[in-house]
Specification:
Length: 77
């Protein structure tokens, strides 16, 4: 769900003023944990943490590419 300050930007053909999706494509309610099947344990947790750092509605909260290079997901095995 987008941050409330983005509702106005997202309204129109993709969502209504409440932020609910109105597009023609169905959105999945599955969590990242349910969608990732190939990893387990700590590696899965690290990967999901890495992805969540990139998937932020508020741009200022997103990690930069440079910051992501220091993420534990990139640590040598």
């Amino acid at each position: 769900i987008p941050a409330r300050q983005y509702f106005g930007i997202l309204t129109g053909s993709l969502s209504n003023v409440s932020g609910h999706w109105t597009g023609t494509t169905t959105l999945s309610n599955d969590s990242l944990e349910l969608l990732e099947h190939r990893l387990e344990g700590e590696k899965k947790a690290q990967f999901l943490g890495f992805v969540r750092k990139m998937l932020k509605w508020i741009p200022e909260e997103r990690y930069t590419a440079y910051e992501l290079l220091d993420d534990p997901w990139h640590a040598p095995v």
